[in-house]
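A favour, since you know our structure tokens better than I do. What I am after is a single protein written out in full by you. Could you add the entry underneath, on a fresh line?


***
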Amino acid sequence: MYLLVLVVGAARLLLFPSDPDAEGVARHHTARRLQPNHLIRAEDVIAESEAEPPLDSLIGRYAAMPIDSGKPIVPEALGTAPLLSVPAGKRLLTIRVMPPLLRTTLNAGSTVSLCDDAGCFLENVRVSALQCATDAMGTSCAAVLEVAANLDSAAWRRLGSASSDPSFHILLVSP
């Protein structure tokens, strides 16, 4: 009898998974589809009154998995840091993001090109994550880019000291 109850309970969970909205807990919803490692900002959230968790606890967190537009944001779908992985044939490169406009538009899944006075030397590079920290001078951000593992020496020279004082600029190809 106990085994039958256990099997029926497991089948119910598989066939009718829990829906956060059905539990009577109000949730905030996404304003757009969030990619894994998306740094959540206020404009990414449709705030609901009396929703759990509080809105300010979502801002600055990361999507730990894809969250479709309009879906509830549940704590299990969030992380305190991006979960970085290196795709085959790629390496991760961290660069400072200087212009304030880029800090508000750039995010995981964005595509950028790196350019200097001679032109663009890395094009259509995917952003794996954006990491921002508040400091005494405002907000400083770094983008984690997926670049080719066999990047040539000329590109490395043009990158220079990418993490401290880059001699190139970032061109946003797609947000």
